[in-house]
């Protein structure tokens, strides 16, 4: 299963919720980073980490799929 096929498969409810939380974290972090006022360096650093963590959580959560086909790996198919 390649990445395009994986993204087209249904996502379990827990990971949909996790994906939405990741989107929110990335949005909040991005808004703080792009704000026209200056924040202390620690706030910008935390916002940067929030953006990265939210983006990674969103991508990983979207790639999780339901079903029996999801349990097969490339090594299972070869041998």
Task: State the main characteristics.
0% strand; 71% helix; 79 residues
Q: Could you walk me through the main structural features you see in this protein, from its secondary elements to its overall organization?
A:
- The model has no long low-confidence stretch (mean pLDDT 85).
- The relative contact order is 0.21.
- With 79 residues, the chain is mainly α.
- It is 71% helix and 0% strand.
How confident overall, as mean pLDDT? Answer: 85
What is the tally of helical segments? 4
Unreliable segments (pLDDT under 50, ≥5 consecutive)?
Answer: none
Tally of DSSP β-strands: 0
Q: Which range best describes the helical content: under 10%, 10-25%, 25-40%, 40-55%, 55-70% or over 70%?
A: over 70%
State the oligomer. Answer: single chain
The secondary-structure class comes to: mainly alpha
Cα radius of gyration in angstroms: 17 Å
> What is the overall silhouette?
elongated
Termini separation (Å)?
16 Å
In short:
With 79 residues, the chain is an all-alpha fold. The protein has four helices and no strands. The protein is elongated.
List the helices and strands and how they pair.
Layout: H1 3-8, H2 13-34, H3 41-63, H4 74-78
